Amino acid sequence: PLRLVDGGFSADIPLSAFGDPAARRRSTVPWGVHLVRADGSRIAVAARGAVRPGHYGLGDGRELYVTANAAGDLVLSDQTEQPVVDALDWTADGELILHGSQPALQDAELVLRHSGHREEIVFPVDTLADGRFRTALLPAAVQGLHGLRQLAQGSWLLYVREPGESDPERYTAVRIQPSRHQTLPLVRTLDGREFTLDRHRQDMLLLHSGSVLPEQDRGAYRQQRLRSVYATARAAGPLRDAVLYSSFDGRQYSDSPRAVHEELLRRQAPVEHLWVVRDRQVTLPRGARAVELHSADWYEALARSRCIVSNTQLPEWFERAEGQHVVQTWHGTPLKRIGRDLTGTAHADEAYIATLPRRAAQWSVLVSPNRFSTPIMRRAFGYEGTVLESGYPRNDLLHAPDRDKVADAVRELLGIPEDKRVILYAPTWREDQPRKGGRYGLDLQLDLEQAARELAEDHVLLVRRHYLVGGSIPGAGGDGGGGAAGFVRDVSRYPDVAELMLISDALVTDYSSLMFDFAQTGRPMYFHAYDLEHYRDTLRGFYFDFESAAPGPIVTDTAALVAALRAPRTPEATPAYDQFREIFCDFEDGTAAAKVADLMPVGGGA
Question: Are 488 and 463 contacting, i.e. CB atoms less than 8 angstroms apart?
Fold first, then answer.
């Protein structure tokens, strides 16, 4: 029924008209609103001005949401209770402010979840009066364990969740009020990167972070032209007194390239220090200049830097210039088969394998971590040049005189109480679980909730994803946050794993080469090898009998791992541990970086 008063009208719609909430689907059911004339014809009801949204509880987590659609007509949406943004804008300093409503919202946090590799970043939400909320984010300066960084490239979907929740199925998408659809996309350029707030699947909010490359460097055609420029610059010379460092293809300031960099700084070598960075996700120390991957600056640095230090493969088209010195440190002792030794296996990249001898021919020296690795690396990479058997520079920190001081600083930064035993959990990646953007799925088979119940009282679990693995750590509370009263910490973005090893009382891994580095500490190791047969016989294969040589217990489930961690520990190493160290730690004495620098034409003397 309609009531007419002084040219206006009103109507009461009982919520019971929308039926049993438990019987409805999870999706949104929109109801149009019309006036019905005496002759049966209908006319849509327009919403006056920018009508404020209304939320009316229907029970069982459902609500009737009253708003205007993009055409200005009144709509009643039978939907799950969800946050709806009705005011949004960029501030002068680049902060994105969102205002909205969701009466049932109490304690909550905003989650940005990457649509490709599914990494998550968490921001606080302020709940206001009358069911209102406010949240703000600064995409050009996201706080993390390694300082401030820009929001990584890609599309990030916006969700709200209860604090500590980690199941994406229980997140609630943040939606945009229909009457605000015409205000999107909302674009802002900050520090050379374009950020765009837009709609996804009609009314979900999405924040897209654009490329950091200049317009003239983007796209396959322009990249091909830059390669031609590189070839010309390489042939023309002269070389610059500069060292170009690359750690995990620009993902980190870490590993052996970092150790060599610090050694050259100690020697006061008269060179410019250039660091490859990917998507501005790396924080560099003072005195190091960032060179963005795939930029014109990067091509020029590859062509003209006197020295290059990398722990991964350089581009297939790279060719060492005359007088250029290329140091290949690689990034681990091989337990699992690598390079040409993967030929014929299920996930072998035969095209990449075919390029290996030519790539290896561009190296001036290959750094070997131990005698065991030298013949394997020569064969796997097709390398015939100089091998420096020095151990890995990245492990010099484990032998440094000031390592205890560094460890204290790391514990303080991570906020780890002195009475907590630190367990580092660092599994490797699995190539049979590909994701978008060159990432791989997080195959987390460790039951973190069960581990927390048994260990949280006196332990902290530091979980570190492999650099090729995307996703988020359940219960960790975002970048560096801690769940289960601080038991689980996501340290995937901590710059250098060597510093994490310094503070760790034990290592839990599966088949990661980190075991060979951690063995130098003499501390316990545990192997959560839940898919041992599949990984060994189908996926990758091993260079030695891992089951008999493992320097610690091999377990296949969480209960067994927790029991092993809880077992009485003695300072004496086992015979297997001693033998493991004898074979794989034979060169490590804290001087590897110095030995690498001695061979470099910019080494500056010891």
Answer: yes
